[in-house]
Structures are given as structure tokens and as C-alpha cells.
């Protein structure tokens, strides 16, 4: 999914406020953090909610979805990897790295960031001492697909289940699967999946593109 620089700044702001407050954050706090008006913050939050990056509950405030959290952590990693790179490899001073990284963080693909991260030997912190997320946002030889493209006998990591799919599992009172094996594909295109030690589940065709997977070749 493509997010704009502005959207990414909001996700980053919500992520850092959330960590300070331990949970959801108010629109006012977000507006203050980004020096924008409350109405324009409200409008952007609506947009992010539509993209399933945040959840906005009246009186509760704004919180990040798994997808929003993932995106925010990538931007954070991008920023800190760039600061480290500029400081260690390019000769920028500590005072100069932040502004440059603010721009570069939005312009970099996961592939570029993970490549720089590996090139520098997996640095634990940026030059300011802030922790760099160790999780990888791009891996060589990994392919992303949805369940309808999966193959029998293969094992897949479930990376994301869209709302419709989540409701399906909720109705069946089954917890969301993480690592699945495709057992069989039936004549009507239903797919039987199984998670380790759990019983198998039949996923109907209309839900299969709502279940996002990662597969290592
Ligand atoms: Zn910085």
C-alpha cells in the first residue's frame, strides 16, 4: 500500500504519542504534535481510518491498527537507519543528520532501508542513541501473496487479515492464524488450511484475497 509523506508523519506522531501515553491518543494531541489545526487532523484521521491504518473511536481517541503500526515502525527504522548512515558513512555531524533524515525517511523503499541496515552491520542504535527496530521490512527471497494464490503442501506466514476475514474467524471463535499450511484445495476452490496442532479450517473463495501471506522461496 502507498502512503503519502503527510500520512506517514501522522502515523509516526500517533506511534510516538501512543508510546508516551500507553494506548490511544486524542486528536488534539496529534494536532499539537504536528502543529496543525484540529479540523485538519480530524480529516486526516478519517482518511487513515478508511485505509485501515488507524481506528478512531469517539471519546476514546485514535489508535493504530496492526497495519498502521507496521507502517509507523518502518518509517522510524528508515529515519534511524538514515541518521546512522549519514553520520557513520557520509561524515555528517550529529546536529546535521536529523533534518536530512526527515526527508529521506519518506523517500526510501523497504528494500533500500534493509540493504543499508545490513551494509552497516545491523546497528543497534542511531547516533542519538535511539533504538533501531530489528524487524525486517523486506527480505530477499520472500514473496507476498494472498491465500487464493497459495499452493497445496506449502507453509505460509500470515502477515495481514483484512476486516472481513477477521470477522469470519471471530464468528467461528477461532483465533487468527499466524503460520499455516495449505492442506487441500477443493473443487469449489475452497482452501483447507491448518495451523500447527489446531484443527483444519475451510476458507471459502470470497475470503481468500483478504488473507495476506508471506512465503520464503
Ligand atoms: Zn532524528
TrEMBL record:
PROSITE patterns: HTH_DTXR. GO terms for molecular function: DNA binding; DNA-binding transcription factor activity; protein dimerization activity; transition metal ion binding. It is found in: Cytoplasm. Gene3D superfamilies: Iron dependent repressor, metal binding and dimerisation domain (1.10.60.10), Winged helix-like DNA-binding domain superfamily/Winged helix DNA-binding domain (1.10.10.10). GO terms for cellular component: cytoplasm. It comes from the Bacteria. Pfam families: Fe_dep_repr_C, Fe_dep_repress. Keywords: Activator, Cytoplasm, DNA-binding, Manganese, Repressor, Transcription, Transcription regulation. Homodimer. Belongs to the DtxR/MntR family. This is Manganese transport regulator. It comes from Lactococcus lactis subsp. lactis bv. diacetylactis.
